[in-house]
């Protein structure tokens, strides 16, 4: 791609406007809030102070939360890899009967997660959950808090975070050179040896990448620990939330958030360094597609099938029960008994017929839709400028726009709260904390890096000859952008919008810091329904919310991945017939 000169860049009014707006946004919402957080933590009175460190060391709760976070992150790095690699192998590598059905079961976490997933498991297995109540009818002395603490958080987050393996590891597996596997088999290598010496080493770069992402997810976990952790297992993120509510401990909350941010930066740097070291086997790019392998040993084959379907039950059961419970009277969940008389449509009638109940759902849809549309629209222009004009200034802007990717969401949210709780000149002297706009800004901020990376790649894939032809025919830069370039990247932009919309619908991490009391989003309403036995009616409403979310997210995922996946399968079938 050619590098445009400074002169041509400065001659374009559109480029200048985009650059000025981008610089203002970066300075106002990416640099200034985080700088304010650092200054407020280490220079509270205008002088360097380590009082926050002293409070951290002397706080048993804070130190325990740090230990719990790293313990959870380390545990997930093992458990998620074990489960994730296994489900990828049984769906994409080994010839397992019903692999398509197994994949659908494992893919349920693609359509629900976060606070919805944690609340669903709590409503099923928690203290007042259906399964706990059902077992309690037979064994009254059962420990009703059996599904809580470290065990419950690890189980739920293990199942919730295998989506990276399904999306990325499965894609890497499909690119392995099947001729290499055939050559190893002709040389006498068995199935297990081929898997261990050829397949897994070829997947090692992607395994390492998803391991780092999993570790970071565990380190900054908020929803699962806050819903299922109980009093004995609280991680850093819930402690940040607790400390941030008091002005006397906000500096401690800020310090914990900074520690999370530093850990994220270090781990991402380690991942980038490892990827550049070149010590891994590369994935071959060949025309021969990977063929599924049969497990020759009948006992091993049977054990793998049993484990695969047992995991399918574990993954699919919560989804099926959530759908069923959305039609149940709340007292049936308390009794732990399902009867025909308990089935009702009243829960759906309450949600759709009561404006106050439907309000959180509508609020989340509006927030998610606005944020998704705004970030994609803005990044369309920014990505075009960064991709076309390459110089030190645009390179610096691109790096700064990736700040939200290396900082935890709770750190970004806390920085926004602490910065804009007073008039700031950069936003026209307005106070944004406590307004509806701050949560929208946070949603836009956290989605910038993902959106920018994909849109920039989309623009880079457009042949330069198309723009040159438009210029030769006399088309101006705006006309070329509007009539030639944008139509070619719109499908990618639409897919990004759908993915962003999905991920923001049930957000809790940013919402819990920034939501307006009169416009409570869905994540906050769902979290409130998990607190205590007196919220049975809210529990039933939450099941309806979850079903609606799964329908919307499932539709979005189909529009993004389903059509392209179906086209790929048809192409493979045609290739195999030829």
TrEMBL record:
<feature type="transmembrane region" description="Helical">
    <location>
        <begin position="484"/>
        <end position="505"/>
    </location>
</feature>
<feature type="transmembrane region" description="Helical">
    <location>
        <begin position="543"/>
        <end position="561"/>
    </location>
</feature>
<feature type="transmembrane region" description="Helical">
    <location>
        <begin position="399"/>
        <end position="420"/>
    </location>
</feature>
<keyword id="KW-0997">Cell inner membrane</keyword>
<dbReference type="GO" id="GO:0055085">
    <property type="term" value="P:transmembrane transport"/>
</dbReference>
<feature type="domain" description="ABC transmembrane type-1">
    <location>
        <begin position="66"/>
        <end position="271"/>
    </location>
</feature>
<keyword id="KW-0472">Membrane</keyword>
<dbReference type="Pfam" id="PF00528">
    <property type="entry name" value="BPD_transp_1"/>
</dbReference>
<comment type="similarity">
    <text>Belongs to the binding-protein-dependent transport system permease family.</text>
</comment>
<feature type="transmembrane region" description="Helical">
    <location>
        <begin position="426"/>
        <end position="446"/>
    </location>
</feature>
<feature type="transmembrane region" description="Helical">
    <location>
        <begin position="12"/>
        <end position="32"/>
    </location>
</feature>
<keyword id="KW-1133">Transmembrane helix</keyword>
<feature type="transmembrane region" description="Helical">
    <location>
        <begin position="101"/>
        <end position="126"/>
    </location>
</feature>
<feature type="transmembrane region" description="Helical">
    <location>
        <begin position="252"/>
        <end position="271"/>
    </location>
</feature>
<dbReference type="InterPro" id="IPR035906">
    <property type="entry name" value="MetI-like_sf"/>
</dbReference>
<feature type="domain" description="ABC transmembrane type-1">
    <location>
        <begin position="361"/>
        <end position="560"/>
    </location>
</feature>
<feature type="transmembrane region" description="Helical">
    <location>
        <begin position="206"/>
        <end position="228"/>
    </location>
</feature>
<feature type="transmembrane region" description="Helical">
    <location>
        <begin position="361"/>
        <end position="387"/>
    </location>
</feature>
<protein>
    <submittedName>
        <fullName>Iron ABC transporter permease</fullName>
    </submittedName>
</protein>
<dbReference type="GO" id="GO:0005886">
    <property type="term" value="C:plasma membrane"/>
</dbReference>
<feature type="transmembrane region" description="Helical">
    <location>
        <begin position="66"/>
        <end position="89"/>
    </location>
</feature>
<keyword id="KW-0813">Transport</keyword>
<keyword id="KW-0812">Transmembrane</keyword>
<feature type="transmembrane region" description="Helical">
    <location>
        <begin position="302"/>
        <end position="328"/>
    </location>
</feature>
<dbReference type="InterPro" id="IPR000515">
    <property type="entry name" value="MetI-like"/>
</dbReference>
<keyword id="KW-1003">Cell membrane</keyword>
<feature type="transmembrane region" description="Helical">
    <location>
        <begin position="146"/>
        <end position="169"/>
    </location>
</feature>
């Amino acid at each position: 791609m050619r590098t445009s000169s400074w002169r041509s860049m400065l001659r374009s009014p559109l480029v200048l406007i985009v650059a000025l707006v981008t610089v203002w946004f970066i300075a106002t919402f990416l640099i200034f809030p985080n700088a304010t957080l650092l200054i407020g933590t280490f220079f509270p009175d205008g002088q360097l102070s380590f009082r926050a460190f002293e409070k951290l060391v002397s706080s048993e709760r804070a130190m325990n939360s740090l230990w719990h976070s790293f313990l959870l992150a380390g545990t997930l790095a093992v458990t998620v890899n074990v489960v994730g690699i296994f489900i990828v192998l049984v769906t994409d590598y080994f010839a397992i009967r019903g692999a398509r059905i197994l994949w659908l079961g494992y893919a349920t976490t693609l359509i629900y997660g976060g606070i919805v997933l944690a609340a669903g498991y709590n409503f099923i297995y928690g203290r007042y959950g259906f399964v706990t109540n059902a077992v309690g009818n037979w064994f009254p002395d059962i420990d009703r808090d059996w599904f809580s603490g470290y065990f419950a958080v690890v189980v739920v987050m293990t199942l919730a975070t295998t989506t990276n393996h399904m999306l990325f590891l499965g894609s890497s597996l499909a690119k392995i050179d099947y001729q290499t596997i055939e050559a190893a088999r002709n040389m006498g290598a068995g199935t297990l040896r081929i898997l261990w010496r050829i397949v897994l080493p070829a997947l090692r770069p992607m395994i390492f990448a998803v391991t780092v992402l999993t570790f970071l997810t565990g380190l900054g976990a908020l929803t699962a620990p806050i819903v299922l952790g109980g009093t004995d297992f609280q991680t850093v993120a819930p402690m940040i939330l607790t400390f941030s509510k008091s002005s006397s401990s906000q500096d401690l909350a800020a310090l914990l958030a900074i520690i999370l941010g530093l850990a994220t930066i270090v781990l991402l740097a380690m991942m980038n360094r490892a990827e550049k070291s070149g010590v891994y086997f590369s994935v071959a790019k060949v025309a021969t597609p990977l063929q599924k392998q049969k497990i020759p040993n009948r006992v091993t084959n049977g054990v793998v099938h049993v484990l695969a379907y047992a995991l399918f039950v574990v993954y699919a059961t919560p989804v099926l029960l959530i759908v069923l419970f959305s039609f149940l009277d709340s007292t049936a969940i308390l009794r732990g008994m399902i009867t025909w008389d308990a089935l009702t449509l009243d829960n759906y009638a309450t949600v759709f017929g009561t404006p106050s109940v439907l309000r959180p759902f509508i609020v989340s849809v509006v927030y998610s839709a606005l944020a998704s549309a705004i970030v994609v629209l803005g990044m369309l222009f920014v990505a075009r400028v960064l991709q076309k004009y390459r110089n030190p200034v645009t390179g610096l802007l691109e790096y700064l726009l990736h700040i939200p990717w290396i900082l935890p969401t709770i750190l970004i949210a806390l920085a926004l709260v602490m910065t804009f709780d007073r008039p700031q000149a950069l936003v026209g002297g307005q106070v944004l904390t406590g307004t509806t706009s701050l949560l929208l800004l946070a949603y836009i901020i956290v989605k910038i890096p993902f959106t920018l990376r994909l849109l920039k790649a989309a623009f880079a894939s457009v042949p330069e000859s198309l723009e040159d032809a438009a210029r030769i025919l006399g088309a101006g830069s705006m006309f070329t952008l509007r009539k030639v370039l944008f139509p070619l990247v719109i499908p990618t932009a639409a897919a990004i919008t759908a993915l962003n919309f999905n991920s923001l619908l049930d957000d809790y991490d940013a919402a819990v810091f920034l939501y307006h009391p009169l416009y409570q989003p869905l994540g906050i309403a769902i979290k409130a329904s998990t607190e205590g036995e007196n919220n049975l009616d809210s529990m039933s409403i939450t099941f309806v919310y979850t079903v609606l979310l799964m329908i919307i997210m499932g539709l979005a995922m189909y529009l993004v991945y389903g059509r392209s996946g179906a086209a790929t399968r048809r192409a493979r079938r045609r290739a195999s017939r030829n």
